[in-house]
């Protein structure tokens, strides 16, 4: 039976990462996968527990967590810290992930992580963040595998007119379609993106990263067009494989609360566990 272990670690001066560790089956430190959720997502959403359980059964330690700016604590179904959500920058997400990677096997999951065999998984915005981390100078030659689902190819997703309105109104409305919760984003998020544009350029990171990369994308994705996956694949220097799943949506048919896997999700899960087994366990 999967027994997840909770953890919390400080990041910076005022942020906290909360997460769950799924120890891999087998003795000693195990190859490890870190799971990154997307925008308006959280570590307990939909398919993430099922993914963690599947990878754990295959002998991998799995670490899933909430980005510090998602405004949610473990067990929450709604954003309970709207100020954190409003000010969650893309660079903050990257800092969170890099801090967690540095802590693996030490402050986080001591004795459970083989630091020579670490992989990253990211969905949607979390996929973009995972790509950036895979290209980070401290990790580019250390990560052993990368899998992204429905990953964005850029964080710059609004036109100039929309950005102008955002600045003039002082906030950007965000509605969670699942819960109906009304949230906002501060222009500080846009300022950060423009100030750190080069650092946050996903396509350039795709070209720099070295980890073998599986890109999974539905060709009926209503949120991130499949054309973005094709662009990412074109920039995937070295070993990069694009799996397009015909008819699959942004979440491969999964919902929250999770109602079980759809055929599209089963295909995504199977390809993912094979990729991590090949590059973390068998490689």
Provide an overview of this structure:
The chain has 283 residues and is of the alpha/beta class. The protein has one domain (5-154, 198-281): Alpha/Beta hydrolase fold, catalytic domain (Rossmann fold), CATH 3.40.50. Helix content is 33%, strand content 23%. It has nine helices and ten strands. It has helices at 48-57, 82-86, 90-103, 125-134, 160-169, 187-195, 202-208, 226-234, 263-281, and strands spanning 5-11, 15-22, 30-36, 61-66, 113-123, 143-149, 172-175, 182-185, 213-218, 240-245. The strands form two sheets. It has an eight-stranded mixed sheet with strand order 1-2-4-3-5-6-9-10, sandwiched between helices. A two-stranded antiparallel sheet has the order 7-8. Strand 9, helix 8 and strand 10 (240-245) form a beta-alpha-beta unit. Helix 3 (90-103) crosses helix 4 and helix 4 packs across helix 7 (202-208). The protein is globular. The two termini are 27 Å apart. The relative contact order is 0.15. The mean pLDDT is 96.
SSE blueprint and pairings:
Blueprint: E1 5-11, E2 15-22, E3 30-36, H1 48-57, E4 61-66, H2 82-86, H3 90-103, E5 113-123, H4 125-134, E6 143-149, H5 160-169, E7 172-175, E8 182-185, H6 187-195, H7 202-208, E9 213-218, H8 226-234, E10 240-245, H9 263-281
Parallel strand pairs: 3-4, 3-5, 5-6, 6-9, 9-10
Antiparallel strand pairs: 1-2, 2-4, 7-8
Helix pairs in contact: 3-4, 4-7
